[in-house]
């Protein structure tokens, strides 16, 4: 026979308080003593009581549901932010309602209408990266909206995202710490915001060290093939280059393949560093590290987005998550 369901009345009786007091203690409403509140909570835990989420949402005037808009939920970067935010929200007994579509006018209008009809308590908009802006949707909701792993063109939007300038600074600082001085940079197209900011951050550190790029920055695509093509050109032009900062781990894979094929040792002759921590994204933490990379902080973005969405008085503007160097075999 199935176990009987413990009700709020059972908790009140076991705690020796009224039904009203038990409800106030567990819902965090009205003023009751902290001792009574804790006594009721301990009793509820001992009995295995679980709130009726629907009833509690009516009592609080909230749905305990967060709407999530993604551009492409299957994107590896989006998945990490989404999974971490969902886990954090779940721990706070918040459900998520996901709408995955192109964030263009037609698709997003339909998603917004459906979310507004669901009486949500807030909205998270998750991008696929910091290359190009996401349209600002804040004015189309009457609940808090927070943007994750993207940026908008509205300076008042609450945004938590990767710190591309610092990513560039960290990468160059790491290569310099390994004694490298003839450093080159291969990255994505010049109009790409992430590529530009990473290159700018790296340039700052290089200039502070009194150095210049061993060869002009090579802009292309976030692709392994582009990394291979650019590396071949670079080695022909600067045979004694001793380090390459790759704008992404995918670019780095192509670069490494060509560097090794030329007979050079990695990292003995040429040190390599990428960006994205792709090996962990696509595998898991048990996989042995090969490529030195910069972790852009996707999990931390997810954690901060979940925490701040539920907090009153979140400050407008962009908040950057600190990246970290993940040292491995290529430096």
What is the number of helical segments per DSSP (H or I, 4+ residues)? 12
Overall geometry comes to elongated
The top level CATH class name of the largest domain: Alpha Beta
Percent of sequence in beta strands: 15-25%
pLDDT < 50 runs, ≥5 residues = none
The CATH architecture name of the largest domain reads 3-Layer(aba) Sandwich
**Separation, N- and C-terminal Cα atoms:** 62 Å
Quantity of strands, as a count: 12
Compressed to H and E, one letter per element, the order equals HHHHEHEHEEEHEHEHEHEHEHEE
CATH superfamily of the largest domain: Response regulator
Q: What structural class should be given to the helix and strand makeup?
A: alpha/beta
Rounded average pLDDT: 89
Rg for CA atoms: 25 Å
CATH topology-level name of the largest domain? Rossmann fold
**What is the helical fraction, as a range of percent?**
40-55%
**Number of structural domains:** 3
Largest sheet: spatial strand order: 2-1-3-4-5-11
Largest sheet entry: 6 strands, parallel
